[in-house]
Amino acid sequence: MKGNTYEYQIIRNGNGFKGDGYIYSGIDIPLVENRGSLILDVDSTLMAPLSTEIALLQNDIAGDGWDIITVNVSPQATVESLKSRIINVYNIEKQRTKAVFLLGHIPVPYSGRIYPDGHPDHLGAWPADVFYADINGIWTDNIVNSFEASDERNHNIPSDGKYDQNILPSDVELQIGRVDFAKMDAFGLPEEDLIRQYFKKDHEYEHKIFDPIHRAVIDDNFGFFGGEAFS
User: Fold this and answer.
1) Helices (H) and strands (E) in the chain, counts
2) Which of 91, 138, 168, 195 has its CA 20 to 30 A from that of 131?
3) Domain total in the chain
4) Is residue 129 part of a domain?
5) Domain contains 16
6) What is the pLDDT of residues 155-211, one digit of tens each?
7) Contact assessment for residue 157 and residue 144, using Cβ atoms and an 8 Å cutoff
8) Any bridge partners for residue 26, and if so which?
9) Is residue 147 part of a domain?
10) For 64, which DSSP code?
11) Model pTM score
């Protein structure tokens, strides 16, 4: 029916495998004029050099139907202090505050004792921005004591500022996303220039200044691999 949105599940069954995906679509769907409030947490070191680009981003976000609450965040802030600021903003207008956008090298929460890729030397805490999106869950830092990972970033010991939870302690209240180009030296450009490029491409996409080619790259180095089919 025109004007309504629908979510479709697409299932493909093959020899020894089953794949599925989802698409959310409709015909003649009206524009969303008001999506609620979004908390834009900005790395304070970027505010001056990228003031023009940040203003452009804010205009694009507002044009998509969001009210924006901008918060300047020091890269040296603790994850606990930033979480408290997010909660304080959220509590002002709980029903309307729907999302958090982390821009720049905002402090990264770590949590758990897991190795999602199956490599034992990766066992430990991993980045968990979802920590900021969970307003009322109980996150602890007094149980896990893990040194197995080869990278010190994944080590997790009691009271080290990295949390214990492998799974979310409660449902999240907020959408969460991050744009962070820190320490990406392989691109040959400083962080500010990488973000500037990203903003330009994002703005041009939002305003249909270019049409992306819909294509994919498959690099298959594992094959079927017992049904996991990594590619």
Assistant:
1) 4, 8
2) 195
3) 1
4) yes
5) no
6) 999 999 999 999 999 999 999 999 999 999 999 999 999 999 999 999 999 999 988
7) yes
8) 5
9) yes
10) T
11) 0.87
